[in-house]
Amino acid sequence: TESLRGLISGTLSIKVSHEGIHSGTSGGSIPSSFRIARALLDRVEDSSSGQILIPEMNVDISDDLRTKAESLANVVGDSIWQQLPKVDTLLPVSDNTADMILGMNWQPSLCVIGADGLPSVQTAGNVLRTNTDLKLSFRIPPGVDADSLEPILKRILEENPPYGAEVSFSVDSSANGFHSPPLDGEVKRAITEASTLLTGRPPLATWIGGTIPFMSMMQSRYPNAKFLCTGASGPGNNAHGPDEKLHIPTAKRLTAVLATTIAAISR
To answer: Could you tell me if 238 and 244 are in contact, meaning their C-beta atoms sit under 8 angstroms apart?
Structure first.
């Protein structure tokens, strides 16, 4: 891969009361902390499209990036969508594969990955809850400084809270993305020959929407270095999920290509 997205995550907390109150008494007078959370999330994300509304989290999509995305789309086709374990009726954010690839790798996104203050549906009663806490995870494009986003997010989410609710946002982790310069010279020649020999196809640079903080650390330490960053990701794989798995045939082919490449440039 030539790029990895960065990450910034934290907890958004909204408190409206000191104790739970019967919803028949409080509903309509005390605003729901969940409704306030929805309003605050609308400040950072367009809920109808998923677009992140914070300018500092976005980067310009160059003509070169779009051309590369279209080339990748021609190779992977709709497999990039079909491989995902989605429900049968679900539609993608974009029906254009190139736009989907750019959205997964060069545009920011938000996931709510955890929540507190919400009882399970089996035990929930007719009570207006005291608070809603949401764990927010933003993926950010390469080139965006993750550390600079903390004060921006705090300002956007905490300023002028709806109804004067107690609102706080605290960041717990952040990491910059990674964008490697294209391979050239001996390394490019060696990996092209190895891939063509062992798979019948030349290598194709791709992007990964996940985060490997170590890569940005290495790049900042060695700014003039070239990086061969790869792995057996793609259709048939599932990283970090409950059903984490690796496509063994792909992993074997990749291992053979890398071993042949390293042997060639070590001579």
So the answer is: yes
pLDDT band for 186, please (50, 70, 90 cuts).
Answer: confident
pLDDT at residue number 160: 97
**Per the structure block, which two tokens stand in for 50?**
């998923």
Assigned token pair, 264: 């060639």
| Domain at 3-59+106-176: CATH architecture | 2-Layer Sandwich (3.30)
Listed in sequence order, the residues at least 6 apart from 105 whose beta carbon sits closer than 8 Å to its beta carbon are: 3, 5, 141, 207, 208, 209
29-82 pLDDT, tens digit per residue, is: 999 999 999 999 999 999 999 999 999 999 999 998 999 899 889 888 888 888
Q: In this structure, which topology does domain 180-266 adopt according to CATH?
A: DNA polymerase; domain 1 (1.10.150)
Do 180-266 and 3-59+106-176 have the same topology in CATH? no
